[in-house]
Amino acid sequence: MELEGRSAGGVAGGPAAGPGRSPGESALLDGWLQRGVGRGAGGGEAGACQPPVRQDPESGPEYEALPAGATVTTHMVAGAVAGILEHCVMYPVDCVKTRMQSLQPDPAARYRNVLEALWRIIRTEGLWRPMRGLNVTATGAGPAHALYFACYEKLKKTLSDVIHPGGNSHIANGAAGCVATLLHDAAMNPAEVVKQRMQMYNSPYHRVTDCVRAVWQNEGAGAFYRSYTTQLTMNVPFQAIHFMTYEFLQEHFNPQRRYNPSSHVLSGACAGAVAAAATTPLDVCKTLLNTQESLALNSNITGHITGMASAFRTVYQVGGVTAYFRGVQARVIYQIPSTAIAWSVYEFFKYLITKRQEEWREGK
């Protein structure tokens, strides 16, 4: 994962690894390393104190020597691909999560676990039923994740330079992720509304256009952003918990802060699972705001549920405290591979695009 992979790689692959330097050259290069010149936000002190790492000439360029020159376009393209793959691969589990978060499900849509739910949905409603709404999700995930990763990378570097010049700041990482969430959710929220309504049991919508038209005509344009504040309220602590857990695990699995795909995937997956479990109550409220579940609305005298406070109150009235954790199993199962896929794909495409850009510049 990208948070700490930058710190050690920038040093290990840097000019300090070359032999035969004069004392003046060594002093100058050491000064550059200490100030993080040319390393971006990731040239941390942990990497600077490590011995040089020699690279096998046949193994190609070292991974972490490349992303220092990554452009905003690179971050956006890599982020869009990562977001689309993340949502597409895990979409059937997301469908199950939405149904398991229903406050008063139909007797035919009460499931014991994720596998049983998938089996029953496929057996009774058709093979492709868990994939309904995938097209609108993929359409929204591309621009949403492009904005998220581009904003995150830019803010992380800018804030790190202010808070911890030449180093890596956990505060900067968390703050950048939280701010980037504002853009991500603004682009993704309408797609979430349509997707979740199409995922519900006995949904009357078979096509995205039918759902969009019905919501627009019956509830107005504001319905597409009815859950936006709840989404933000969920995602801000989600990102904070996610990054804090990731940093903690990295200190144990990857104390040298070198690029290590297995440690990044493992740390990211565990961090995503912890954050998902902790923010499940907010996700349940978001699902209620998006779907406006008819049975739950019967217990709410004001009609449409229009705010986070109203959603929290309705969830408690219908199901009590335990209702806030409906679908927690599916949410965690979804988040573990989802986080691993998102970050590993993002890092891979960022590496691939940056490598091709550098080869193109060298060939000019």
Automatic annotation (TrEMBL):
One of its GO terms (biological process) is iron import into the mitochondrion. The keyword Membrane applies. Keywords: Ion transport, Iron, Iron transport, Membrane, Mitochondrion, Mitochondrion inner membrane, Repeat, Transmembrane, Transmembrane helix, Transport. It is a multi-pass membrane protein. InterPro entries: MCP_dom_sf (IPR023395), MCP_transmembrane (IPR018108). Solcar repeats lie at residues 70-158, 168-252, 259-352. Residues 18-27 have a biased composition (Low complexity). It catalyses: Fe(2+)(in) = Fe(2+)(out). GO terms for molecular function: ferrous iron transmembrane transporter activity. It is found in: Mitochondrion inner membrane. The keyword Coiled coil does not apply. PROSITE patterns: SOLCAR. Residues 1-28, 40-62 are annotated as: Disordered. Pfam families: Mito_carr. Residues 7-17 have a biased composition (Gly residues). GO terms for cellular component: mitochondrial inner membrane. SUPFAM superfamilies: Mitochondrial carrier. Belongs to the mitochondrial carrier (TC 2.A.29) family. Mitochondrial iron transporter that mediates iron uptake. Probably required for heme synthesis of hemoproteins and Fe-S cluster assembly in non-erythroid cells. This is Mitoferrin-2. It comes from Microtus ochrogaster. The lineage of its organism: Eukaryota, Metazoa, Chordata, Craniata, Vertebrata.
